[in-house]
Design brief:
With about 130 residues, this protein is mostly beta strands. The chain has no helices and eleven strands. Strand 5 and strand 6 form a beta hairpin.
Length: about 130
């Protein structure tokens, strides 16, 4: 069983930055592809970014491209989402997700492909 715990959310002004963290336990973290999703009130869960278990492959959704960066530290069992140039429309509950297996380049943007989810951390962008 995999446990994922997100942290780092909060209230930030437009144009500001935050770094989210997701710590994993209960598994060999380095074999898992990871992703960040978000869900705003009244909206469906939305893909944000994904990274392969090796870290050699990663990509973002078009809505955050150039502003958000996903990274991971397998030695610390942690995945990060560095968010810059934040906008009010980035306000949402941010979740990390994990999926076992795949090649060292495997990434996925479909929420249904992920086996494990954290509880989420709230990000609010407002002046």
């Amino acid at each position: 069983q995999v446990q994922l715990v997100e942290s780092g959310g909060g209230l930030v002004q437009p144009g500001g930055s935050l770094r989210l963290s997701c710590a994993a336990s209960g598994t060999i973290f380095s074999t898992y592809a990871l992703a960040w999703f978000r869900q705003a009130p009244g909206k469906e869960r939305e893909f944000v970014a994904t990274i392969s278990w090796s870290g050699s492959s990663a990509y973002n959704s078009d809505s955050v491209k150039g502003r958000f960066t996903i990274s991971r530290d397998n030695a610390r069992n942690t995945v990060y989402l560095q968010m810059t140039s934040l906008k009010p429309e980035d306000t949402a509950l941010y979740y990390c997700a994990a999926k076992d297996g795949g090649s060292e380049y495997y990434t996925a943007s479909g929420a249904g492909l992920y086996d494990y989810w954290g509880q989420g951390t709230q990000v609010t962008v407002s002046s």
